Amino acid sequence: MPEDRVGLTIPENSAGLVYGTILVATLLSAESAVRETYLKTILGVLIALATYWLALTYAGFTGERLEQKEGASLLLLGRAAIRELTVLYGALVPLVSLLVFWIAGTTLDTAILWSIIVADVTIVAAEVFIGVRAGLEGLALLGQVAIGAVLGVLVLGLRLLLH
Predict the structure, then answer these.
(1) DSSP category for residue 11
(2) pTM of the full predicted structure?
């Protein structure tokens, strides 16, 4: 893993951090709190997340074998699985948010909405961090942050459209 100037370790597949956050926020956007419970919602998200992680692992495993003209091995499969773990790390933000709201006793509908907002804020904060780390300022930084904000609005818009 590459190390940042300030000693921060950046994961090899850091894109997975954002994928995981967006994936859970999108799944929550489509969730209907009227028909579901906290337990069903969390289990559904975990099953979808595991399926997505396995699909990414398998795709990476298959692609690497195709590109390198190699046969299947547990070592290659293990490398692919570890590389895609960042998706699970990124999913923790909205999932932990949902659990906190559950413990706090809020309605599922409120928890879902606020967990989506937490995910959106996380994406925008990631864009700010990346932009500052890259030395961006002014309009360049604002433009980069706008990319994350647009994605967040799309996920939130999906929630509003479906419910």
Answers:
(1) P
(2) 0.80
Amino acid at 105: G
Q: Is the pLDDT of residue 117 over 90?
A: yes
3-state secondary structure of 3: strand
Coil, helix or strand at residue 123: helix
pLDDT in tens, 142-157: 998 999 899 888 988 8
Amino acid identity of residue 83, one-letter, is R
End-to-end CA distance of the chain: 41
Those residues with Cβ within 8 angstroms of residue 159's Cβ, 6 or more apart along the chain or in another chain: 28, 29, 30, 112, 113, 116
Q: Which distant-in-sequence residues (6+ apart) come within 8 Å of 64 by Cβ?
A: 70, 76, 79, 80
Backbone phi and psi for residue 101, each to the nearest 5 degrees, phi listed first: -65, -35
CB distance 112 to 31 below 8 Å: yes
